[in-house]
Amino acid sequence: MQFMIIALSIGVLALWYVGAKGVYWAALLALIIYLGAEPGFLFWLLYIPLNIVLLLPSIRRELITRHLVTLIQRLHLMPSISKTEKIALRAGTVWVDGEFFSGKPDFDKIFAQSYPALSQEEQAFLDNEVERVCEMTDDWTVYRERDLSKEVWQYLKEQKFFGMIIPKSYGGLGFSALGHSAVIQKMASRSQVLAITTMVPNSLGPAELILHYGSQTQKEHYLPRLAEGKEIPCFALTEPLAGSDATSIRSSGELFEDEKGEIKIRLQFEKRYITLGSVATLIGLAFVLRDPKKILGRGEELGICCALVAAKTKGIVQGRQHDPLGVPFINSPISGTDVIIGIEDIIGAEEGVGEGWMMLMESLSVGRGISLPSTSTGGMKLAARVAGAYAQVREQFGISIAKFEGIEIELAKIAAFTYMMDAARKFTIGAIDEGGKPAVINAVMKYHSTEKFREVINHAMDIQGGAAISLGPKNLLANAYFGAPVAITVEGANIMTRTLIQFGQGLIRCHPYVYKEIEALEEQDIEAFDENFFKHIGFTLRNMVRMLLLSLTRGYLHFSKRSSLVSKYERKLVWSSASFAFLSDFVMGYYGGSLKQKEKITARFGDVLSWMYLLTATLKRFQAEGEREEDRIYVAWIGEYALHQIQTAYEEISNNIDRSLVGLFFAYPVGWYMRLNSLSKAPSDAFSKALAEKLVSEGRERENLTEGIYLPKNTQEALGRLEHAFRLSCQADLVAAKVKKALRSKVLQKGERLYADALASGVIDEAEYALLCEAKKVREEAIMVDAFSLSDYLKRA
Questions:
Q1: pTM for the full model?
Q2: Which of 396, 375, 404 is nearest to 696 (CA)?
Q3: CA separation (Å) from 130 to 137, 369, 462, 500, 723?
Q4: Is 355 a known active-site residue?
Q5: From the candidates 410, 451, 491, 698, which is the catalytic residue?
Q6: Cα gap 733→771, rounded to integer Å
Q7: Which pLDDT tens digit goes with each residue over 751-786?
Q8: Looking at residue 37, what is its pLDDT?
Q9: Are 733 and 775 in contact, with CB atoms under 8 Å apart?
Q10: Other C-beta atoms within 10 Å of 264: how many?
Q11: Element of type H or E holding 489
């Protein structure tokens, strides 16, 4: 009898774990009924009537669902969604983020996703046109002159850099998202200003909006002109009182008929933080359109519109500029008073009236996944290259500073984060190139690429010390450092992205049932709500069981057919996904509609989602690149780090659920168990040396990590000089080891003539002596910093 009870209990758990369909539950019920005559099965017999009610929708709707809907609406247990929120939620597509919200991610499907490669044409453009414009750009001069040179501006126009996303049929380059990203990444490694200037016309702006939503007339007129640089575009959205809350814009347009009877729009607007705003010839403008005389017959309030406005139109004021932390990319306010445009100037013409918010959300959801991740990885690769070379070249206490453990730790983080974010950049762009618009993942990318860039540039600055904070043409990192907060702020401030978008939108967008339930409630569709609600209940119970069983087995209940290293972290991700899905439903049920305001909680759930994705992208890269032996250390470090971040987030969630009875249960039994059976600890210090070595050793591994950035051939330039010193330093180290061995054995004595004495005593030969002398010379040159005369210094001020 006990055996049968245990067997049936295991059967129930197994059905919950796999998410079995109703037919399997019916079979289990039949077995219970058959065995029900036995006295020990009283519990199961009591269980049968409840299952009959739950499994028969027509009975369930009348006895349970109708009353439940009334209760939910009365107590506001479901979040309400405004029209603008619905548009934002519908903008974009669900991608691998949906797998994490499922609690049962299909890694066969995830690893089958595209991991793209550049076309021959795109690679040639990088090797030639992009290489050339990087050669033409001197970042110190850009900062001193407060703009790119006229020659660079002209070259960008002539070579169609502003038309990368425009199809060839309209005169553009027609690059893939990866090609676009690779160009921006390489430019960012040379000059953030160069990258931003090129990035913006290819991101959210007139070209992108016309391409997807413009009328045929608009496409034929504007796209060739934008591709050839005959029009310089900007997009004016942000206002003094409308930043992250773009729906609150006050810029307005009013429809009227002119003396010829033509429909016109009179605009009033004040915008700020508009990149390229002061030099733009074509302004993409977001505004709220009103029709007080009901000319279009669609009411008075027509909603947000996006229009194309020629900068020379009467009433527009340009010419002023902001100064974002001294970074001299063009960023400025624009205003307009009584600016008259035609209804045909709305993007999409009359069909585009009121569609502006949808256009913005769909375009922004893609742009976040390309532009800022590309500039960030370009900056991270530059920082990795510079920090590693400098650590190798710089000596203190008679040895390279790369040998100090404190430096090793910083170099290890730089190397690992650079590998991880480049993996995530390519993986995300693969989805975009396949036609996806993974809005939630793009928000994750925007947040983490800019945050990790800020962290990496800080580590690199710390390694360089005084050389990093002394401005001048020899400084390779300071300008990127100044630009880091700008990237944090734009295209959705990172605080908002973390607390509201990653999980807040992700939960409703990616959850298999929540949005359907909300829609059913709004439409009073009892049948649809009943179907989705009870599927949701089964979904939650399944994930609770999966969380428990995967936790007890530390993920080994999940079978993976991949290599041992990949399988190790795949199992942990499946375990985390089950916990994430169940706990998401728990907090949503517990807080109801007020979960929106629990931003500290939702931010931590966003952290869990983000780190599951970043680790998955790392595994995908490792697999796509042939699981190279030298890359295993990246996977191991990132795997432990990401899981530790997830574990920390889970613990902080359990610590901060309020102290009601339910909250106490969550905080103590559940919280204690999660601590005792943690996903992972922080990466071991043993990893640091191997990771740091990748940056301070010459060879393929360093090249692979920093692939795609600009490396000047001229050794008189700062980076060229440092790279030359690095190469000679690596070569000289082998010779210097002989000299140090002779010192230890007392064959040689320390002093200014050490190398000469080593030559004279036969410890080294003439070629080795020359190498040591040359390496010493270029090392000293490479670590020099700039100094200015007082008059030059005051001129700069």
A1: 0.93
A2: 404
A3: 11, 21, 30, 37, 20
A4: no
A5: 491
A6: 10
A7: 888 888 888 888 888 998 899 899 999 999 999 999
A8: 46
A9: no
A10: 18
A11: helix 478-489
